[in-house]
């Protein structure tokens, strides 16, 4: 229905490599000062329609120096425009779309720091198959480590930017807000109490590049953009491409270092596990002269890893008052290995499809749509229920089914759906973009190999698998954005817009047996072991809506000096108004040296998950060096137990950010960016620790009604200050014989601190009731402090070298993860006799351990079998590096936790070898 006459004029041409003349697919072609652009096809060809007139055309490609070339378009003509590009040192010449609404601004010209991660190229040389892990090993400011023995967090990896929370970074896809996960990280992980976005629900095969804006941007994009913005750009290329890869861990770790301590026996074991298969296909086709439809399908199967230690504690009930574990093991033909926990990556199987499309209606109008469907099923486990730990009243019936105790499993079914559609173009001199973005995440729990002890009091025919319910989150966002260039000085870009957003959070109750107490008099824990189901009284749907308006100005005062400012007003239905600003500037001292700076305010609305999440779960807490189960209830912030304890009502987090930096480019070979920042955040939201009734009969009754003995809540507890320095240094050169060399050194240095008083004590926003009852330390304690300050790497450096000679290439990468530490809140520093024993030294010490920095080395060798097919083989963590062993007996938990699950740098899976076949037809 679209007339071919609509595409009668514009530019047509081909983009090639300056050295060898080969075609360059996926090159960005953009008319300066507009959003009118396209990309080259598999043969380097492109066509771009435009109205009659004189233009400057920006031609840019990752790894190449951008060019700006003039073009005069005449009525009814397709003007020829052939361009050759020279390889560049890195990515500074690439056009960015994040952090600016003025078309055609390059990375080095941006007034704020923006990293460009060319995912489509990087995946050819690395063994990581998901976005979180790819970014962790290439972007120093980004950190994501897989969790273990942490309920739902075993299946969705929390991620940080600049060491701040997962919910303090805003995720966009093609510039549109991405919905968050429905999962709340409530266990003892680094990001406890936060809600993030599941980046791994977006197949890596569908991604062209990722832009990371390392600067506060709430005034530009809204809530959550305190630490920065991650913008995922989907592929638009045509033709068929894809990859098939397989990798597994081949490693050795000290499983038996506790049980063999001092015996002279080798504590190490050899392990081969974690087999990971990825199959990805991407196909794009042209629609008319300018439009495209791009479809991606991807499947990932990840087998579990296990780095458990050998349990040294009591396994079986005593016989005649004596521990008889070894005799019973011998009689049953078992060893302690039969009682291993599963401490490592969960098993995950899943896949998804992604669509990205744009279809022109005429030269001034196009409709677009993108989105996807992803489903993954995860399989993890909790703490082993050893026979000795099974309550005596149910042992007879339990042992009839589980004679050696049982390892309960937490399995998940996670479905993620997103759809965005819109229309954009020009109305007179104004550009416009009207869109609707919908996203939904459902996280359902199935508990297996388990039992509800209150069922087992009277029968051995008890239920073993439970539907424990789940959570859901939905977000719908309507945006209208308008922009226009004015001929003021060297150019003024004016952008204005409005947004309406609706959020919904759902708790679905589990089946009755997953939460019910069938025998109150028995005194045993009710609900499915490892993860009790959600109660009906906690189930329901909660919603809110917000409206916002913004104005964003970007003025080129001179060719060297740009100044931008933004102001955004938002109104939330549940807590009121907020007004935020941002100003930034960049000044070029010379063509190769520029200074830049910014200042902004920001905010983060409490997530609906934090406002309404409620359930009872079994937590294992350290008491006298042992892991003891405790039935803990998470109650809403406005609940009666919260009122009794005087927990303050939730409100938004607010921030003030400052950044100053420089960019230096020398002879198109050396490039350096260096940026320093400070972010002050007030009223940070935390998940408190577990309050008991403390003799309060009213509170005790409230807890008992929820089958809990303790309660925790979300609250605005502390203020923080984050300071950091981030830098990227790159060098690129070429040699005779079609050889190229590129080296990039990037690093970040982070100092995150909870604000303190003159006596260096944390300033905690606690109620008078908490102070009067001496419960401030339960509200926010020393371990909570460590999660903010030292539990994540405070510095990270990345050196990556790429060398290519003809068909052969090699990638060598070394990533240094800085030290982390753990502070335990249960140890009384005034009572040395109560301190746990250091397993390695035999001495009593406070339960604080520093885990020193580690360097992980990756290598990949690749070879072009044909022009369209490439083979890559390599290894991540080539030298099989692990974090430091746990030293304190309380953290080791009777030998089970060889490595810390509370604080982590790069995980503890060891060497991973892989092979990948890539093709681009």
TrEMBL record:
This is TonB-dependent receptor. Keywords: Cell outer membrane, Membrane, Receptor, TonB box, Transmembrane, Transmembrane beta strand, Transport. GO terms for cellular component: cell outer membrane. It holds the Pfam family TonB_dep_Rec_b-barrel. Its main location: membrane. It is found in: Cell outer membrane. It is a multi-pass membrane protein. It comes from the Bacteria. InterPro entries: Beta-barrel_TonB, Beta-barrel_TonB_sf, CarboxyPept-like_regulatory, Plug_dom, Plug_dom_sf, TonB-dep_rcpt-like. Belongs to the TonB-dependent receptor family. Residues 108-229 form the TonB-dependent receptor plug domain. Residues 368-878 form the TonB-dependent receptor-like beta-barrel domain.
């Amino acid at each position: 229905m679209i007339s071919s006459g609509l595409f009668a004029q514009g530019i047509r041409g081909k983009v090639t490599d300056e050295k060898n003349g080969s075609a360059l697919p996926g090159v960005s072609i953009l008319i300066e000062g507009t959003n009118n652009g396209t990309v080259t096809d598999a043969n380097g060809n492109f066509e771009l329609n435009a109205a009659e007139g004189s233009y400057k055309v920006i031609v840019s490609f990752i790894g190449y120096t951008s060019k700006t070339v003039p073009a005069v378009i005449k009525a009814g003509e397709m003007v020829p425009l052939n361009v050759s590009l020279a390889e560049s040192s890195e990515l500074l010449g690439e056009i960015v779309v994040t952090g600016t609404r003025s078309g055609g601004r390059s990375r080095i010209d941006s007034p704020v720091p923006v990293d460009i991660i060319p995912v489509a190229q990087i995946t050819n040389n690395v063994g990581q198959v998901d976005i979180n892990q790819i970014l962790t090993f290439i972007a120093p400011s980004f950190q994501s480590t897989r969790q273990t023995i942490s309920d739902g967090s075993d299946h969705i990896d929390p991620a940080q930017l600049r060491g701040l929370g997962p919910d303090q970074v805003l995720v966009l896809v093609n510039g549109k807000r991405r919905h968050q996960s429905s999962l709340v990280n409530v266990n003892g992980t680094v990001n406890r109490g936060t809600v993030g976005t599941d980046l791994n629900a977006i197949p890596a095969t569908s991604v062209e590049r990722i832009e990371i804006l390392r600067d506060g941007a709430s005034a530009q994009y809204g809530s959550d953009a305190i630490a920065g913005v991650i913008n995922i750009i989907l592929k638009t290329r045509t033709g068929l491409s894809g990859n098939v890869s397989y990798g597994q861990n081949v490693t050795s770790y000290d499983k038996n270092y506790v049980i063999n301590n001092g015996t002279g026996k080798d504590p190490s074991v050899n392990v081969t596990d974690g087999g990971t298969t990825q199959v990805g296909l991407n196909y794009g086709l042209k629609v008319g002269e300018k439009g495209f439809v791009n479809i991606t399908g991807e499947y990932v199967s990840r087998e579990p890893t296990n780095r458990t230690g050998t349990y040294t504690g009591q396994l079986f009930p005593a016989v005649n008052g004596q521990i008889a574990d070894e005799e019973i093991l011998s009689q049953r033909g078992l060893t302690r290995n039969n009682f291993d926990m599963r401490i490592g990556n969960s098993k995950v199987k899943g896949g998804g499809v992604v669509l990205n499309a744009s279809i022109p209606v005429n030269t001034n109008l196009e409709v677009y749509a993108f989105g996807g469907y992803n489903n993954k099923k995860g399989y993890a486990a909790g703490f082993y229920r050893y026979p000795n730990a099974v309550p005596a009243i149910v042992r007879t019936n339990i042992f009839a089914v589980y004679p050696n105790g049982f390892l309960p499993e937490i399995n998940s079914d996670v479905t993620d759906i997103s759809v965005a559609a819109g229309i954009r173009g020009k109305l007179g001199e104004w550009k416009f973009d009207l869109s609707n973005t919908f996203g939904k995440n459902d996280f359902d729990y199935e508990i297996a190999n388990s039992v509800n002890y209150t069922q087992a009091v009277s029968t051995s025919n008890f239920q073993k698998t439970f539907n424990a319910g789940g959570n859901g989150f939905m977000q719908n966002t309507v945006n209208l954005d308008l922009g226009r260039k004015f001929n003021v000085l060297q150019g003024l870009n004016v952008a204005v817009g409005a947004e309406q957003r609706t959020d919904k959070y759902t708790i679905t109750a589990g089946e009755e047996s997953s939460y019910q107490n069938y025998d109150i008099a028995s005194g045993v824990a009710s609900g499915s072991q490892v993860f009790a189901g959600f109660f009906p009284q906690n189930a329901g749907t909660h919603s809110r809506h917000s409206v916002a308006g913004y104005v964003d100005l970007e003025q080129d005062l001179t060719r060297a000096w740009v100044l931008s400012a933004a102001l955004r007003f938002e109104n939330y239905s549940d807590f009121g108004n907020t007004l935020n600003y941002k100003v930034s500037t960049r000044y070029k001292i010379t063509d190769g040296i520029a200074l830049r700076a910014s200042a902004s305010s920001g905010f983060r609305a409490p997530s609906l998950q934090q406002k309404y999440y409620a359930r009872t779960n079994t937590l294992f807490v350290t008491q006298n060096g042992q892991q003891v189960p405790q039935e803990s209830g998470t109650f809403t912030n406005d609940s009666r137990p919260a009122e009794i304890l005087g927990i303050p009502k939730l409100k938004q987090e607010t921030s003030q950010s400052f950044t100053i930096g420089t960019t230096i480019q020398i002879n198109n070979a050396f490039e350096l960016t260096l940026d320093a920042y400070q972010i002050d955040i007030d009223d940070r939201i935390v998940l408190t620790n577990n309050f008991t009734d403390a003799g309060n009969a009213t509170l005790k009754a409230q807890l008992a009604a929820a089958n809990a003995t303790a309660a925790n809540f979300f609250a605005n507890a502390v203020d923080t200050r984050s300071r950091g320095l981030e830098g990227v240094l790159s060098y690129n050169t070429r040699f005779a014989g079609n050889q190229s060399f590129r080296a990039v050194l990037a690093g970040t240095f982070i100092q995150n601190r909870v604000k303190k008083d003159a006596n260096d004590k944390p300033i905690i926003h606690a109620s008078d009731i908490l102070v009067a009852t001496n419960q401030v330390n339960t509200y926010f304690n020393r371990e909570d402090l460590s999660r903010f300050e030292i539990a994540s790497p405070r510095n990270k450096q990345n050196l990556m070298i790429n060398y290519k000679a003809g068909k052969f290439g090699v990638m060598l990468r070394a990533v240094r993860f800085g030290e982390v530490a753990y502070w335990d809140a249960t140890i009384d520093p005034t009572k040395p006799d109560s301190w746990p024993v250091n397993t390695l030294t035999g001495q009593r010490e406070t339960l604080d351990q520093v885990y020193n920095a580690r360097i992980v080395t990756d290598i990949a060798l690749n070879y072009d079998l044909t022009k369209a097919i490439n083979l890559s083989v390599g290894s991540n963590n080539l030298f099989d590096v692990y974090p430091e062993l746990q030293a304190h007996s309380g953290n080791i938990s009777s030998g089970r936790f060889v490595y810390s699950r509370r604080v982590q740098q790069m995980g503890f899976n060891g060497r991973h070898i892989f092979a990948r076949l890539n093709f681009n037809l």
